[in-house]
Amino acid sequence: MAVQGAFAKASIQFGVPTTSLRQRYPLPFCPKKKKPLTTYFKELENVLHKHSLMDKPQHIYNVDEKGLQTEHSPPFVVGCRETTTPAITSARTATTTVIGCGNALGAQIPPYFVFKGERMREELLEGRTPGAEGTVTPTGWSNREVPIWTSNPSSLRLQ
């Protein structure tokens, strides 16, 4: 602590600015209530025993979706070096949703993309991972009408 104070004192004495030009970053999602990890893992163990999955990691899957905003560029701000400067993002930017799925052994199913648009164009999937598919919605978010690969489990191929 004394060393930090010495640097601050020296910066004032020699006229070194204590601010810098920084770029804002989006606020992270923080849940309001955090469930204790011990309770979570006890309940997980109960579910695994109930469904006889303790020795079958190939049958345990996790599906998640991530919304990517492609048009967000936060402004620069002037602030102290030690502080962070969060930015509030606008809901008006285009969003692309990526839906991924993998099992407890580490095998994954190719991703599924949901683009913002009126009709699906093949160019949207150029350079994709082999097996990846996609569709479009007016918002770019997934909804009940999005025919993701989980609707046809027999067509899934783990990679």
Write up what this structure looks like.
Residues 127-159 are annotated as: Disordered. Residues 149-159 have a biased composition (Polar residues). With 159 residues, this protein is an alpha/beta fold. It has one domain (18-155). Helix content is 17%, strand content 29%. It has helices spanning 2-14, 37-50; strands spanning 19-23, 25-26, 61-69, 76-80, 86-87, 95-103, 108-116, 133-137. The chain has a four-stranded mixed β-sheet, with no helix packed on it. Strands 1-4 form a two-stranded antiparallel sheet. The longest helix has 14 residues, at 37-50. The N and C termini lie far apart (51 Å). The model has no long low-confidence stretch (mean pLDDT 76).
Name some characteristics of this structure.
alpha/beta; 29% strand; 8 strands; 159 residues; four-stranded mixed beta sheet; two-stranded antiparallel sheet
Topology:
Layout: H1 2-14, E1 19-23, E2 25-26, H2 37-50, E3 61-69, E4 76-80, E5 86-87, E6 95-103, E7 108-116, E8 133-137
Parallel strand pairs: 2-5, 7-8
Antiparallel strand pairs: 1-4, 3-6, 6-7
Main β-sheet description: 4 strands, mixed
Rg of Cα set: 23 Å
Distance between the termini: 51 Å
Mean pLDDT: 76
Q: How much of the polypeptide forms β-strand, as a percent range?
A: 25-35%
Count of DSSP-assigned helices: 2
H/E element order: HEEHEEEEEE
Taken together, the total number of domains comes to 1
Total number of strands? 8
Helix content: 10-25%
Query: Would you tell me the structural class of the helices and strands?
Result: alpha/beta
Enumerate the strands of the largest sheet in spatial order, edge to edge or round the barrel: 3-6-7-8
What spatial form do the alpha-carbon principal axes imply?
flat
Low-confidence stretches: none
